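Same chain as my last thread, 217 residues:
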Amino acid sequence: GRGRSAPLPRASLAWSGRFQDARRTARAGQAAMAGSDSQEVSVAGELLAEWDKADRARRKAGLPPGGLAAPGAIEQAADLRAATRTLVAGGGLSVLRLGVMADDGITAIETLESWLAGLKLPKQKLCRDNIAAVDQENHPAEWEQVVRGPVYLKYTYTSATEDPGSGEGTPCESAYVKPYPFQGRGVLFNPALEDGEMRMYGDLPLALFEADVEASS
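reply #2:
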């Protein structure tokens, strides 16, 4: 089952206040909006990186990994959700990659669905019927055989390029699930923004958006 995570150190909690300050600054006025967006993206990344650091310390101390924390036991859950949403909405997202590591395929699929519902990517339409099953060599495999054990589910979203004539575009999405014979559990969050900076966070909690999605439904 999902374990209860240990409290974050005070340094991590300080990022929460700084992130809230950055979010307020970003809403303060239209004139400084571009700079404020950049600040908010920067602080969001710092918060996620600090959470990663604290989670590594928890695991090193023999405590349950944050990736398996139950919805009500996730430290800084609201800030983590806000930070991930900031990175997909405020920095010119070009590609988003999610890597879900779970005990079985159903858990992985339900996790992906809750994350996609929570992130609210523009024109996102991929559903579980579009997820391909592959073996460890990425060859097509039987769905039932793959999803009965530990899996890695990879989801990729490429932002739409607007058509000059219509002003519309359709994003490209793909996903596959494969056996995952390793210990990691959680979500790898890898947003590629227009600034070209490498961003990779996780293992973030599988259940991060669970309670949030239920509350808004």
